[in-house]
Amino acid sequence: MTKVINKSKVAAAVLGMFAVAGSASVAAQDVSSLQNEEAKVHAADVRSQQKIDSLFEQSQELLYEYRAVVDEYENLKVYNDHVQGLVDDQNASLASLQRQIDRIDETKQGVVPLMYKMIDSLEAFIELDLPINKQSRLDRVAMLRDLMDQSNVSESERFRQIIETFQAEMDYGAALNAYEGKLTYQGEEISVDFFHLGRAALLAQSLDLKNGWIYNKETNEWEALDDSYLSNLTKAIRMARKQTAPDLIKLPIFAAERAE
Length: 260
Hints:
By secondary structure, the protein is an alpha+beta fold. Among the domains are: 106-172; 176-240, no CATH class. The protein has helices at residues 2-102, 104-128, 134-148, 155-172, 230-240; strands at 176-185, 188-197, 201-206, 212-216, 221-224. Strands 1-2-3-4-5 form a five-stranded antiparallel beta sheet, covered by helices on one side. Helix 2 packs antiparallel against helix 3 (134-148) and helix 2 (104-128) runs parallel beside helix 4 (155-172). The radius of gyration is 58 Å and the shape is elongated.
């Protein structure tokens, strides 16, 4: 009986040892499983963080691209507004030109009579003015009249030449000039050097330097010049031709009459 009990105790002890050993083995397996799961969770966390970092970088790149697109849009908008302003201005200019073209016939109708009046007034002025290069000036007026009858000359070219002739007439009023020509005095035609100081005085001197004349604006006649002025007149002619240095000279000038 005692032996049977002891055997039972031994068997129980062995079973207990196996149970403890089994429990330890199960516990070891649980810890290993937990460690594996933790490693998997950690690896998953790393992958998730990597995805998050990648998505953040992509979002930053998209943000930069968005800002660049917005800036480009603003620049394009400013440029387009500028171009639209230019187009509007060009359209307005074109419309203005078209209106002028539409009125060109009307403009011609007004300009042509004006040009004839200008030529007439130019001729009348030359006839009343000092006879400075009178024939060449009248020849220029005749040329302008011929120009008005030439169909191959544009209105703008006619007007330009008329204006140039008026400008030449204005230059006579400020010029110091000398030129050779013919003077008729007491029925005799004499070769002379003419000299004019603007429109203030017109004088002439024979080529032999022995005689001089002055044009009287009141009588529209040539009068003999006092011999005391001959040397000064010679010097004035040389000055006008740039043959001597400018200097002060004394010459007679007919003073304008005072209005009463």
